Amino acid sequence: MAGVLDGIRVLDFGRYVxxxxxxxxxxxxxxxVIRVERRxxxxxxxxxxxxxxxxxxxxxxxxxxKRSVAIxxxxxxxxxxxxxxxxxxxxxxxxxxxxALAGMGxxxxxxxxxxxxxxxxxxxxxxxxxxxxxxxxxxSVGQAMSGGVHLTGTADQPYRTPISWVDHATGxxxxxxxxxxxxxxxxxxxxxxxxxxxxxxxxxxxxTYLVEQAALGIDRTAIGNRSFINGPTDIYxxxxxxxxxxxxxxxxxxxxxxxxGEPEWLDDPRFASDGTRGDNGDVLxxxxxxxxxxxxxxQAIGELGAAGIPAAPVLSPREVLDHPQVEAMGMKQHVPYxxxxxxxxxxxxxxxxxxxxxxxxxxxxxxxxHTSDVLTELGFxxxxxxxxxxSETI
Length: 394
Fold this sequence. Notes:
Layout: E1 9-12, H1 18-28, E2 32-38, H2 57-63, E3 66-71, H3 78-88, E4 91-94, H4 101-104, H5 108-114, E5 119-124, H6 139-145, H7 165-188, E6 193-197, H8 198-205, H9 207-216, E7 233-237, E8 242-246, H10 250-260, H11 274-279, H12 281-292, H13 297-306, E9 311-313, H14 317-322, H15 324-328, E10 332-337, E11 340-347, H16 371-377, H17 382-390
Parallel strand pairs: 1-2, 1-4, 2-3, 4-5, 5-6
Antiparallel strand pairs: 7-8, 8-9, 10-11
Protein name: CoA transferase
Pfam families: CoA_transf_3
InterPro entries: CoA-transferase_III_domain, CoA-Trfase_fam_III, CoA-Trfase_III_dom3_sf, CoA-Trfase_III_dom_1_sf
């Protein structure tokens, strides 16, 4: 079945997560994504290594459904290769400071001179304007500057999450921007440049508390795993693990007080609304903690579920892989890859389209696996490809 983006070619100059993930989204929905990488390979292939040759989980997850062209862009011969690649493309994606694009030969003016209707998506740490525009950064920088790290952990020790949500959010925003630009091009014939940033993505995810701060000047500080704006919401220890529950709205709180045997709390002004319950969440969490401490995780989740209160276990990565709901959702897919005897377990897109679903059609590419094939598609003869190899351009 053809994907919704069948016929769209994307050149992926991205590295690590924020750049490549946007291209991964497009690839999963059918775009022909060509990962353009250095002839000797990029260091992002080697983060969190799991294969015999040291390739890592980030690269494998970000690179399914992509082809790899490895090229030394420092040689004179590489200029024609890049020109033809750009000429064949609909979209170019990268994640570098805006000032670095020209040095790579993929700034928007250069791209337009080769392909007038091309779309450029570039995401950087801080975007193309402002005093920090040329600074680099990774996911943790976005987390730290979003306000979210300040609100996570305790007042004495802020925490970041090891899950790179800022990188992934930035990649998703880039993919959305590309889709909007493709739609506009279908109407007007015009390409355009898309700019995104780690900081912008992180701030956009933190707006509940930023809007509140701007209006009320409330200056919140971290309170562990409790919620500022409802309760009881927290992570609780059971006899055999940990669970999370989140009680939002008066109807859910009424159910919770009944389960706890605390009906008088319905008339307590400390718990009259989500906001006051958040303000007094320490009292609610203490009561819930005592209740959970007498039960296994399954027992606590079962009783909460029977009362109509959302609850779930805190899972380790191993438990996620084995969880029946994850299995039922069909997110996991095993693909072959050199250096992994049992192949790699990759994860599909979490959104399903009934008629044009995303799919993992091909495993991640080895370095330069498709260079000769792509150059042949671009019109290079066998002798020209051989000459490019001899000059160590490819």
